[in-house]
Amino acid sequence: MKTKLEVKGLCYSYHTMEGETQALLDISFDVKDGEFFVIVGPSGCGKSTLLSLLSGLIKPEDGCILIDGVPREESRAVMGYMLQRDHLFEWRSIFSNISLGLEIQKRLDQEAKKDLAGMLDTYGLSQFRDARPGQLSGGMRQRAALIRTLALKPDILLLDEPFSALDYQTRLEVGDDISTIIRTQKKTAVLITHDLSEAISVADRILILSSRPGRVKNVIPVTFAPEYDRPLARRNAPEFSAYFNQLWKELRDHD
Amino acid sequence: MTEPSLSQKEFIAKEKQHKKQVRICRGMLLVLLLALWELCAELGMIDSFIFSSPVKIWGCFVKMAGDGSIFLHIGITLLETLASFFLVVVIGVGAAVALWASRSLSEILEPYLVMMNSLPKSALAPLLIVWLGNNMKTIVVAAVSVAVFGSILTLHTGFAQTDPDKIRLIRSLGGTKKDILTKVLIPSSVPLIISNMKVNVGLCLVGVIIGEFLSAKAGLGYLIIYASQVFSCEYRLIRKHRRKANAQHF
Ligand SMILES: Nc1ncnc2c1ncn2[C@@H]1O[C@H](COP(=O)(O)OP(=O)(O)OP(=O)(O)O)[C@@H](O)[C@H]1O
Ligand SMILES: [Mg+2]
After folding, report:
1. What pTM, to 2 d.p., does this model score?
2. Looking at chain A, which residue has its C-alpha nearest residue B163?
3. Residue B173 and residue A79: Cβ atoms within 8 Å?
4. A94, B2, B36, B213 - which has most CB atoms within 10 Å?
5. Which tens digit of pLDDT belongs to each residue from A177-206?
6. By C-alpha distance, which of B100, B203, B168, B162 is closest to A56?
7. Cα first-last separation, chain A
8. Domains, chain B, ordered by start
9. Alpha carbon separation from A191 to A9, A31, A203, B139 (Å, rounded)
10. Residue in chain A lying closest to B187 (CA)
11. How close is the Cα of A48 to the center of ligand 1, in Å?
């Protein structure tokens, strides 16, 4: 499989009047096409910063990001960024929320509208087309946010703890749901999470970051027998706890 | 749409009943206060010459309505208030957006805005007459100056508190600063803008009346000044009479 995303020697620091905060130090990794890549690390280690860099919202201080072998700035690839909270706008209906990206890029034509309607149908939200976000449950909102991201047909999905605002039950369901959607669409995805079992249940590979300044500690490939290869099924697989213990140990080790 | 259930209907009926009661009580309170006022004046508990009474006010209104003068005055004040209100909203929102768009501009101007806002505008009004002349322009400018600085400060503070994550969202979808303005900033500030407008209508009216006190040939403020001058003459006369009467009595 070819490499979709390549990160080399990435560094980033935040500057304030109080001082400099080194967030990321010499981060290098690569993500294959269609891979589900998960990043875990202690709180404040720079995970969100890493995604902001990948999405281009902030510029790296050092190092480079290549997409399909081309530097990020020159690449035409579309990045879909899903933030921690859904940020559906209360003053817009669900439909006009999910079409926000297309509207901004002035690509909201009849064709695109039909596409969006199809997606609403697929993800079970079609009867909420004209509802306000407040009328949806947490899981539905998250699905609407995913449609908003997918509507731009991104080549790479960047997910910053997209399930962390949900309660445990919903989180399992939506996590399963959304990762299955992403897998069936064969999208390349980079997911950030705090939750180790969530990481193991969806990942192809897991990258472990050290505490601040974030450095790559290890990258662990995750493979399961085919009969277990769905997020909820993975949780019941015999390998699951072995992976969990390995991750746990790596995270706790202070080199 | 399906037929609403029985409990939903009950809920709506109850809610309507409640709203009706509130309306009735509001009306009754007004009638009660007016009646009390009238009664006190009739019974001589308050001096109806100073405090007037609802019946007298109504009489005066009917008299002024007869020759149409009251409508002229109300119309002029209303026109001036609306004109200044419109200007305050346009200038207020425009300036607040400009301040939001440029951090340096907002930091440079902030102390000046705070100072202008706390300046007593009624003290400024005589100057405005000198600058702009004794006309409607002065009155509108006076009213705008009363409301506009507070409006800019309030709106700018509100704009600055826009959720940074929502801005990130727009940027991650490829939006520019203009998209942030039209898709997040303005829509999310609608409640703020409306509540600010409510305050501004009142302030504009205050400003217009102050302006009319000083430089007008028509309008409610002019009427008030006119009445108080006439009144003070009459009042002095009456006091003289009463003193005379008292002197004769003893
Ligand atoms: N705008 C900023 N200005 C200054 N420092 C910042 C800023 N944003 C983040 N930081 C610092 O950079 C470090 C990394 O932040 P980041 O948000 O990337 O962490 P994170 O791994 O996503 O944390 P969490 O797991 O809590 O979401 C943190 O220690 C934080 O204090
Ligand atoms: Mg984070």
Report:
1. 0.78
2. A87
3. no
4. A94
5. 778 888 888 889 999 998 898 899 889 999
6. B168
7. 33
8. 74-218 (1.10.3720.10)
9. 20, 12, 9, 61
10. A91
11. 7
